[in-house]
Protein 1
Amino acid sequence: MRPQIWRASSERDYLHQPTAAVPSGAGWFAHPSDQNPYIQVDYIDPVYASGVTTYGARDVWEWTKTFKVFTSRTGDTWTPVQDVNGTDQVFKGNFDNNTPVDNKFPGMILTRFVRLQPLTWHREVALRWEILGCYPDEIPPPPPPTTPTPPSFVCPSELEETGLYPHPTDCTKFYHCDHGIATEKQCKEGLHFSPEKKVCDWPETAGCRST
């Protein structure tokens, strides 16, 4: 996914502005006087965010060690990513400036904005990052519902040598049980199986109703 707008609470200089936070960039640096640093992206359209990959700054010994992530659909109200217990999640970031670290969210989050708030860092607030996820139209639709297969017919008793029994849903069929083994049978065209007479009969006299 490619963000359309990058913003941050501050930047150290022109070379390390928010757009430099892409994995191939030099990295974003907050201004040293920034007491509440953050960087955020705007995708313009809704996306499903599933996690984040972070890196330290390129070619220099600075990185973010822990951070929080917030999401928003409007850019006005922000919701922290929480763990399965409903606690704001503190993610473990990087331990050097080059190794990527993946952090997955507990589930897919539908959002437009994603904000990363560094909590602790090495030397200076610096990072490169990318959001993991996909656009809504990239999620495959759920499979169509399938009609459940009716349970196989079970003969009433294995002790009974033979017996004829009506089909549970189709009046034109019946089961022949032989020592506990059921075999599905079909009446001749135009006839229904009579549960009472145990024979195929005319529909008006068979007394069978399909369900």
Protein 2
Amino acid sequence: MLGSVAVSATLATSLLCRVLAGPIRPRVDTVNTAFVDLGYEIHEGYANDTGGYYLFSNVAYAVQPVGDLRFKQTRLPTDTRGSPPLRNSTGSETVQCVQAFPQWVVDTRAQHYGVSPQVAESMLRSQAGQTESCLVLDVYAPAFAVHKNKNNKNEQDAVPVVVWIHGGGFTYGSKTSTGNPAGLISRAGQDGIVFVAINYRLGLYGWLGSGDGTTVPNLGLYDQLLALDWVQKYIGHFGGDPAQVTVLGESAGASSLLHHITARGGEGPAPPFQRAVLQSPAFQFNLDPAVGYREALAAAANVTGRPVGSAADLLRLSGADLAQVNQKAVVTARYGEFNFGPVVDGTYVPRLPQVLLGRGQFHRTVALMTGHNTAEGVPFVPPTVATPADAAAAVHASLPEASDATVAFLVGTLYPAAAYATPLDQVAQMETDAALGACTTRFAALASANATYNYLFAVPPAWHGEDTAYTFFNGDTSPVDGVAVAAGLAHALQDAIVAFAVAADPGKGPAAGGPGTVGFPLYGPEAQVWRLGSEGAAVVRDDMDNPRCPWWQQAMADGLV
């Protein structure tokens, strides 16, 4: 489907690199430690010698979703009676939710690295630390904030908090899969930030919709919400300020944020954060939950050798068998798709977020910074698309509910072939606009009376997810899809994110006005975006201020796609 949950090619690359090279971890001094008593656990944090922060890794933020809690909402941990247990993790232990990869992701990574699909498959699917007991997070806290909190307990001394929600198409990725936040922490300087990175349930564990009451739709969203509630309750123990929480997400992580901002159509409690940075808020807007459910039941019958007819049968499977079922249910996804993700459930997600934004039904308490890339869609179009007939067929496959007339309008009028160099570019622009979040950033700006901050990442090839190498830049200028990371631009983007978290204004970052860059303006009625390209930074008019985006928003509201 065109509305694919966008998993970045870069993120898939990052995952394979981490399998090849091992986890990237901060250098620690095991003598220099700090302890935080959460009531249910005492956590030992290890100091980074050069970064000036403590890492508290694999902190449980929930009662783990195993046993009776498989496919159910869970809850915050309960304080223990007597002395809480001591948890000391140096960060070398990997904990991640069970992973699954579509075959097209495996094949593209194999081609990228020049290895066989079998080798790529083995590397991606055999990552260490996969477990259902995965609802943990990492806290990177400046040493001065931890010690100040311990000695003074003064809320006025608390520092802003940035929470990271990873991407990965809702079927793979983890709190550490995209990179190390040391660069962001460094750019915060003396102001300081506490950085939190979370896991949430993936694949059928977090997104299975049985429709019979056995499972809860959108469990992954509830996991994220619980982690954010944990931040509100406990981040002060690490020197963080719960009244200054910015949530940063990319791809699936950004679209998750969009769902929280539009939760319950803007009714009920406000989200437990004050600011949000949405990088390419992508998800499969026309996902049919019945597809993933059917695939899961068929896979379970294949794994067990006996008929499996309900989610109740899945509940009784062993952990090893369910992990196999999860992979088999995801591997069959069509090119650019993943079979699992957020769906309209009538309660937390009453309508598509894009539609809710258009109706003004969202929580206005959250300040927004958004970003999109110029060529988001290229990795999500089958490379075999070479003719106009191929393009029409690809659109039909992406939009199975669309009529022939709608598809003809798309390829003939809204995206005329003459406007694009190739049929692949034509379909890729549709993916960029509708599925990978580019138009959504425009919807968010208009819904917020143009009072958002928007950036455009245009460093070639500017595919989906490539800006994450800049977000998590830590001195490594290794090429991303053939182009070396520009340190100056990376620092400018990091400074913008940090300034937004600290002062609600990305234009106040120290590098935002430095050499080769310009200030980061408010979107405003002129639809201004901060463009980061090979030549530096510039302020330009939003390329999503076009006739295509309003059509998509209305088509989503009308059910045409």
